[in-house]
Every structure is written in structure tokens, then in C-alpha cells.
Amino acid sequence: MPFDYNNNAALHKPCAVDAQPFKYKAKIASVSPLEKRNDFELANHCFLGVSLENSHFYPQKLAGILEWISRRFSFCTVLVGDSIHRLTLQSVRNLQPTAAMAAALELGECFVQQSRPVFERFSATTRFRFVTCHRVQAQASYQHFHCRLRHLYRTDTRFNQSVNRFAEHYLRKKIDELEPEQWARQIGFSADYFLEEFAIFACLQQQGHSVMVYPGSFSTLSEIAQGQHPLAPEELKALTIVSLCVKGR
């Protein structure tokens, strides 16, 4: 469903949007599977994953990403990672589940409100449509994919190790700051985050969104796309993951 705009106050306000020339440029870092490297642009539609409170999605870097998308795709679904961000808030800020969910949903709303001028700068070439993780997770298909991925995580050693390595890489800067119990707790939150996220991606692919764009890497997801986890959902195997790097001009 399209995202509904409203006037809730921001929890976190990124830097202001300006009309100056773009200061950042996005380039392809990798494409998975590799055989899609030269033809993924034939698709007319992509989806962009947005991680909340991530500097890649503050206006100046976001503009660089959208400039890259606008040169390749006529339509782009913007997946706002609101409900899954609750796990980050629980892990990092020690919020209780109910408070974490409320804060995460408000952050998602604020992102869309504050970023509208950036998206509008590219509206002449690309039509953007917003969806939220919260709304996707309300779908029956999400529950199906999430159950399958949780089962795979419990029963497939290779998949389990891949997800945990991904979580460890994501948290690597904190390893010296945490006690073993705290480290294990944060790994658990991160693994839960990725499994929910992957189930959402499977839903979008099932709905016809086969090219995912993200400014960063998804090692486990890339492995799935490359056929390294044969028991993963077919929808994830069918995804093309385009990882971008964003650098100053």
C-alpha cells in the first residue's frame, strides 16, 4: 500500500535539504547474482530499502542514490524499514517492545515527511511509491515467509552461520565495548532483524519487485541469490541485489 503522510513531529531530524548540486554520487559496488550485472537495468521497476537513522538516507547522500535510480528506472518502490527498526531500538536504546514499536513507526513517518523534497527532485523521471515494513508484515504471505526463514535458521547450519556472520559484521565496531552476554543479546536482535527483513523482501519479490537497490551489502541475501542456500524461499533466490557505494564528488 502507498504510505500515508501525516504531521507527526520528528524524533530525529536529518540535515536540511538544499537546492545545491548533488554532493554525493552512487556507484555499483556489486550485483548478485553476478550474471545479472549487465541486464538488471532492463527491468522497469526497482525497490529501494531504507534503513532508518542511517546516514546514507540523510538528504545529500539520498539524493545521490536517487539520481542513480532515476537514470535507470521509471518506477521505484521505497521500502521504509519502520517496524523492523524497533529491534534496533530495543537492542541499542534498551526500549521496551511497545515503546520501541511506537518510536520506530514515528521515525518511519518522519523520514517520509522530511525526505519528500529530495524525492520530488527526481519525480520527472521516476515515480516513487512508499511502502512500510509494518504494512508488509501485516500480510499473510509475510507470516509464511518468516516462519520458513526462522525454521531454516534453526535447522540449516550453513544458513545459521551465514546470518550470524552478517550480524557480527554489522556489529563489529561494538565488539570491544560489550560483555559476552551483551554481545550475544545484540547478535540475537540483529539475526531477528535480518530474518524479518528477508521475509519482507520475499513478499515484495512475490508481488513483482525483483530488483533490490541498497547502499551497502547483504552478504546472506547475496549468497541466497547466488544459489548457496538451496532451501531458502524461491522468491529470495529470484531477487537481484544491487549494492551501491556512495561517495563524495
Keyphrases for this structure?
single chain, 249 residues, alpha/beta, Rossmann fold
Describe the structure.
This protein is an alpha/beta fold and 249 residues long. The protein has one domain (25-248): 3-Layer(aba) Sandwich (Rossmann fold). It has helices at 59-70, 85-93, 97-120, 133-136, 140-155, 157-170, 180-206, 219-225, 234-237; strands at residues 24-32, 45-50, 75-80, 127-132, 211-214, 240-248. The protein has a 6-stranded mixed beta sheet.
Low-confidence stretches: 1-20
Largest sheet: 6 strands, mixed
Strand content: 15-25%
* The CATH architecture: 3-Layer(aba) Sandwich
Rg, Cα atoms, Å: 18 Å
What is the strand arrangement across the widest sheet?
Answer: 1-6-5-2-3-4
Structural class estimated from helices and strands: alpha/beta
CATH fourth-tier homologous superfamily? Cyclodipeptide synthase
Overall mean pLDDT stands at 89
> What is the CATH first-level class name?
Alpha Beta
Question: How does the overall form come out from the CA principal axes?
Answer: globular
Q: What distance lies between the first and last C-alpha atoms, to the nearest angstrom?
A: 36 Å
What's the helix-strand series? Answer: EEHEHHEHHHHEHHE
Helix content: 40-55%
Q: How many individual helices? A: 9
CATH topology: Rossmann fold
Q: How many beta-strand elements? A: 6
Total domains, how many?
1
